[in-house]
């Protein structure tokens, strides 16, 4: 992207973020923010954290979705639907049952561990699949995620925790307040670290044998990528719940436009993912105001439509 395009994109995102501050069940105006203490409290405690949460989660999910597709060598997978999101929910369930009084960071740690195991299990499961049949990978990933999701649902039902399970598997931002979203800064940081090894991850897209031939430590780079995916997914699920399709649609659009050079593509993916989740949350607050539609529902519908359009369109790079 040229500097002019970057400036325009950042200006649009900033305008959306400012607009988001004044959308909600409690009416707040600019004049009220300047003079009314209650309006200031609403903005600082609720609206600003909610806007930042949408931006951080969207950026992190888009980046880790692109990493996941490189590691899986397939454009039809993303963490939230390929077992990572379900594994994160399993980790939260285990922590809630075994350590019910544990702090949120402890639950996040257990969730990150189960997500790492689940993601590694998927990569091992799809390794033997023939590369000439790329549609087998997303099918196996969906079944794999479905099995883990079924296990989570079974134990949640046995433990009378179905209501909690719904909040983990359906991402929404209505409960985001100051002091309850800060884990997402860690998710964004974990996703941002992948930019430091973006060139090495790009080499992985050539295949493991070619990457080793070029002197790449495949195990180390893959491990770092999986760690970033696990930490990011766990933090997003713990804080907001699962938000699907962000890590699927955005990377596909970016790859068609910019290719597989992650050094260039990851910042654009982060910007696009942040905008997608923020717009979805803003629409969720306005379409049925004063009631809300979960951002996961709106992003899921939009993502499915866009992804189907991508499947039936010719790839174009420029």
TrEMBL record:
InterPro entries listed in its UniProt record: ABC_BtuC-like (IPR037294), ABC_transptr_permease_BtuC (IPR000522)
Keywords from the named record: Cell membrane, Membrane, Transmembrane, Transmembrane helix, Transport
GO terms under biological process: siderophore-iron import into cell
Membrane topology: Multi-pass membrane protein
SUPFAM superfamilies in the cross-refs: ABC transporter involved in vitamin B12 uptake, BtuC
Domain of life of the organism encoding this protein: Bacteria
GO molecular function: transmembrane transporter activity
GO CC list: plasma membrane
Transmembrane segments: 48-68, 80-99, 105-126, 135-157, 235-254, 266-287, 293-312
Pfam families, A to Z: FecCD
Main location: membrane
Location in or out of the cell: Cell membrane
PANTHER family: FERRIC ENTEROBACTIN TRANSPORT SYSTEM PERMEASE PROTEIN (PTHR30472), PETROBACTIN IMPORT SYSTEM PERMEASE PROTEIN YCLN (PTHR30472:SF27)
Family per similarity comment: Belongs to the binding-protein-dependent transport system permease family. FecCD subfamily.
Protein name: ABC transporter permease
Originating organism: Pseudooceanicola sediminis
Lineage per the UniProt record: Bacteria, Pseudomonadati, Pseudomonadota, Alphaproteobacteria, Rhodobacterales
């Amino acid at each position: 992207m040229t500097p002019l395009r970057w400036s325009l994109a950042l200006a649009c995102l900033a305008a959306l973020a400012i607009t988001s501050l004044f959308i909600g069940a409690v009416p707040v105006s600019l004049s009220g923010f300047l003079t009314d203490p209650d309006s200031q409290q609403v903005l600082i405690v609720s609206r600003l954290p909610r806007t930042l949460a949408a931006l951080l989660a969207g950026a992190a999910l888009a980046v880790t979705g692109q990493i996941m597709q490189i590691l899986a060598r397939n454009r039809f997978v993303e963490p939230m639907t390929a077992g990572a999101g379900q594994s994160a929910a399993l980790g939260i369930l285990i922590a809630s049952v075994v350590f019910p009084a544990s702090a949120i960071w402890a639950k996040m740690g257990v969730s990150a561990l189960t997500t790492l195991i689940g993601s590694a299990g998927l990569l091992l499961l799809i390794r033997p699949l023939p590369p000439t049949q790329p549609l087998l990978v997303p099918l196996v990933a969906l079944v794999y995620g479905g099995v883990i999701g079924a296990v989570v649902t079974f134990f949640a039902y046995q433990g009378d925790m179905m209501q909690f399970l719904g909040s983990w598997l359906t991402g929404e931002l209505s409960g985001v307040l100051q002091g309850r979203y800060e884990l997402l800064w860690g998710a964004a940081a974990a996703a941002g670290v992948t930019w430091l090894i973006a060139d090495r991850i790009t080499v992985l897209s050539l295949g493991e044998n070619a990457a080793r031939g070029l002197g790449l430590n495949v195990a180390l780079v893959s491990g770092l990528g999986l760690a970033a995916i696990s930490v990011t997914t766990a933090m997003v699920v713990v804080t907001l719940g699962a938000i699907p399709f962000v890590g699927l649609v955005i990377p596909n659009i970016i790859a068609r436009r910019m290719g597989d050079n992650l050094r260039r593509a990851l910042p654009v993916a982060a910007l696009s993912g942040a905008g997608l989740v923020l717009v979805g949350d803003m629409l969720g607050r306005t379409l049925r105001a004063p009631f809300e539609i979960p951002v996961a529902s709106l992003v899921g519908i939009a993502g499915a439509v866009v992804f189907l359009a991508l499947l039936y369109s010719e790839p174009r790079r420029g």
